[in-house]
Design a protein that fits this description.
This protein is α+β, with helices and mostly antiparallel strands. The radius of gyration is 15 Å and the shape is globular. Helix content is 20%, strand content 24%. The chain has 5 helices and 8 strands; from the N terminus they run βααββαββαββαβ.
């Protein structure tokens, strides 16, 4: 299982991680088309900024995830060390969002489901890490 780590001292807040995440989770997988899709895909990465400090925030894929414990429908689950959300089971109660100590789960308002990092399931490297121009994001496999 892998994890994404942030080197906040080199993050410039360019938000390319968010853009590539949107494209990765789009139907078209093309940058211009992805931004025109309805509903527009959500980034599962959140760039936080405070003064001169910025960093990308994703799900930490906790070993003992509070979101899985709080999920009333069983949508949040672990699989091969990853914390994933089955949107077909999600009822939009947002308990996972309230229980996440990192604020890494978002609401998909249009579809009324939770949205979170899935480490780009099926890829060797998450796209946010692969496309970070300053190498502020690092993917380490345990």
């Amino acid at each position: 299982m892998g994890r994404i780590y942030v080197k906040e001292e080199v993050c410039i807040g360019c938000r390319l991680c968010e853009i590539h995440c949107i494209v990765q989770h789009s139907k078209s997988k093309r940058i211009i088309k992805a931004f025109k899709e309805e509903p527009r895909p959500l980034s599962r990465t959140i760039v936080e900024e405070k003064g001169n400090v910025s960093f990308a925030l994703q799900c930490r894929h906790c070993e003992e995830p509070f979101c899985v414990e709080a999920c009333i429908s069983g949508a949040m689950h672990t699989e091969d060390g990853k914390v994933l959300c089955d949107i077909k089971k999600c009822v939009g109660c947002w308990m996972c969002i309230m229980s996440c100590p990192f604020g890494a789960i978002k609401r998909d308002e249009k579809n009324k489901v939770s949205s979170k990092c899935d480490l780009c399931a099926g890829s060797d490297m998450p796209v946010c890490v692969a496309n970070c121009p300053n190498e502020a994001l690092v993917y380490e496999v345990d």
